Amino acid sequence: MKGVFTLWDGAECVYVGHTPWNRSLQRCLREHLALSDEGAIRVSHFAWETTSTPKTRESHLIERHGRLPLYNRPGSPLAPTKGSITDLRAPR
Asked: Which of 35, 61, 69, 80 lies at 20 to 30 Å from 89 by C-alpha?
C-alpha cells in the first residue's frame, strides 16, 4: 500500500513522509516509529493516508504546514540522504 504519513509530537507535526516505490506504508511507519522507540526522535502518534501519488501528496502536506516540520529539516535524523546517480551514457 502506497501513501503518506505524518509523525506528531503532541499537537505539532514533526515529520511528513511518503512511501518510496519499494516500501509499504506499514514498513515505513515501523521503521520511523522504531527510531522513536530508540530515542532518536520524539513522536507521540502518527496519521496516514493512502494515495496513488505519494510524493506529490507529501509536497502538498508540507506546503499546507507552512514550514518544514522539525524532522524534514536538513541535519535531522530523518533527513533524506543524497543518493548518487550514475550517468550510463557513453562519452562522446
From this structure: 80
Total Cβ atoms within 10 A of residue 37:
9
C-alpha cell at 88: 550510463
Q: Using only the alpha carbons of the chain, give its radius of gyration.
A: 15
pTM of the model: 0.80
CB 17 within 8 A of CB 62: no
pLDDT attached to residue 80 = 66
Question: In three state form, how does the secondary structure of the chain look?
Answer: CCEEEEEEECCEEEEEEECCCCCCHHHHHHHHHHHHHHCCCCCCEEEEEECCCHHHHHHHHHHHHCCCCHHHCCCCCCCCCCCCCCCCCCCC
Cβ atoms of 6 and 46 within 8 Å: the answer is: yes
